[in-house]
Design goal:
81 residues; single chain; 3 helices
């Protein structure tokens, strides 16, 4: 399961899968990152060219068009820039 369930929500799991298939349940918060360690490393990777974030940017819009940007995301970026 990936994602966040609303507060107070219970999740039902098949007990046999946990026992017979030796599955485990693991929770994490924010990807279980170690911010003080991970962020400097990400910056280093970006600056060295190993983490190519700029190529992930499909468009730049002014803040006034933030709603248009969200609509583009929901549509899978199919709107013309």
């Amino acid at each position: 399961m990936i994602g966040v369930v609303p507060a107070g929500t219970s999740v039902e799991l098949p007990g046999a899968d946990i026992v017979l298939r030796e599955k485990t349940i693991l929770g994490c918060m924010m990807g279980s990152n170690r911010f003080r360690v991970d962020m400097p490393r990400y910056v280093e990777l970006y600056q060295s060219g190993h983490l190519r974030l700029d190529e992930m940017i499909s468009a730049r819009l002014p803040l006034e068009q933030v709603n248009d940007a969200f609509e583009r995301c929901a549509a899978g970026g199919r709107h013309a820039a």
